[in-house]
Amino acid sequence: MPHPAPNPLTAAERAWAHRELNPVWARQWALAELDLPVRGVVLAYLDWRTGAYDAASAQIVAALSELTEPDVWRSRALNIQAGLLMVRLDFGAAHALYTEQLAVAQGCGNQLELAHAKHDLALSLLDLDSARAVPLLHESLTLFEQCSASEQAGVAHLNLGMVYQRRGHVGEAEQHYALAVKRGQDGYAVLHILALAQLVVLHVQQGQLAAAQLHFGQLDQLPQSQDIEAEVERARASVLLTQELSRVRWAQNRGEGGWQDSAREQQDVLQTLDPATLALAMIGQANARHAQRLAELEASLAQAEAQHAAAERRSITDLLTGLHNRQHLMTEGELRLVAGTTCAPAQAAMIDVDRFKRVNDTHGHATGDVVLRDIAALLKAHALPGDLVARYGGEEFVLVRSVGQPSLVPTLEAFRLAVQDHAWTTRPVTVSIGLTLVPGDPLDAALDRADQLMYAAKRAGGNRLRHDLPRDSTSSGPQLNLMYGSERDSVH
């Protein structure tokens, strides 16, 4: 008995849960789910965290237009859009979206989404109403812990640490940072980097250079992340520590006193250089390290973008012919045809290789594949740059031309003759073509009509074009005021 197909929403929840632990897998899932609106939420989150803000914004706006129900996915989408507004420093608009997210989360009764909403609303209030923000952060932390959301609880600890550090409550800040580090060690790399970076900064500001160096040693061993914020905070911690070590050593050599660094090995190294050389060397080393990290991050982002683009191309491409595949045709073709009207129709053609089974039976499937590739190349060569050319399946192809473009009749006639006159290594190959006007009706209906015209061409002997365009519309000029006409053959 066959197993039922997995519920796509279950897979979507897995992708969402793995967006930090396994972002590559989450992106691969999202790219494969072309018709699921929640894919846009997952992609928007991944693009946001890697600094691809334009792509993230486009994805989330499109997702929100479809996710109109007040459920967990709309809550997540609102959260991402608000986070993007925070990046743009549009705190007022972000606060409004976080407030809306809170209402959605409360309405759908999801405790984890409610915790997210309270946490991020608190962050938007830190500079506007800190008295309200801190209790919200504590409430969100409690909810995260009740939901066993280890990473999110760690993020709440991290943000509470920053709030207490800003208020001068060093002990509370260090305690929350340490708890965030502990949660980050469970495999949440971004959280681990951010928490250690904040500990380094806190200890530098307190003059505790030995502790700062200890934490920075741990931070420096962590692999690079594609998260922009995490790498910026790592670089900031490195700069602050390097500059402070330089300053302290300079002051000591000048007899101005200063803190006594308990790290004896570091002191031995410092003693070998004069202060000016030490300062320049350490700052130069820090700059080189940061430049290397930024270069690696840029290279990693470029590679991720290239892989993303390649995956998208693969998902819409027919592997044999290199044309668009049927899945892309059904999505993009619908968009191309919807603008058609009776006075300004779009056009759709169905193309079928005549007696193709004989080619396979006589010469083998490998030769048949060569024929299909050659047909595809000829069709692509005769199409206009804006045409949608796709392999529909087997030996069938489709060409869609949008509103306002020239008649397809001359294009298809030239293509038909090119196939007829091509230097085939097999028996001669020809094609039958059905072409129809599309005054805004659905793609399925248009293809069915073109298919019927194509089979009429086959019944008439093949190697011909049959269309329903009026006689005055078959020139190469722009299509204007086209009306349905009777079926006509075009054949030589």
From TrEMBL:
Q: Which NCBIfam families match?
A: GGDEF
**Assigned EC number:** 2.7.7.65
**A GO molecular function for this record?**
diguanylate cyclase activity
Which named protein is this? Diguanylate cyclase
Region (Disordered) residue spans: 464-492
Taxonomic source organism: Deinococcus oregonensis
Question: Which Pfam families does this entry report, sorted A to Z?
Answer: GGDEF (PF00990)
UniProt superkingdom: Bacteria
Lineage of the organism: Bacteria, Thermotogati, Deinococcota, Deinococci, Deinococcales
Cited PANTHER family: DIGUANYLATE CYCLASE DGCM-RELATED, REGULATORY COMPONENTS OF SENSORY TRANSDUCTION SYSTEM
Looking up InterPro entries in the UniProt record yields: Diguanylate_Cyclase, GGDEF_dom, Nucleotide_cyclase, Rev_trsase/Diguanyl_cyclase, TPR-like_helical_dom_sf
Keywords attached to this Swiss-Prot or TrEMBL record, sorted alphabetically, are: Coiled coil, Nucleotidyltransferase, Transferase
Limits of the GGDEF domain: 344-470
Per the record, the coiled-coil ranges are 287-314
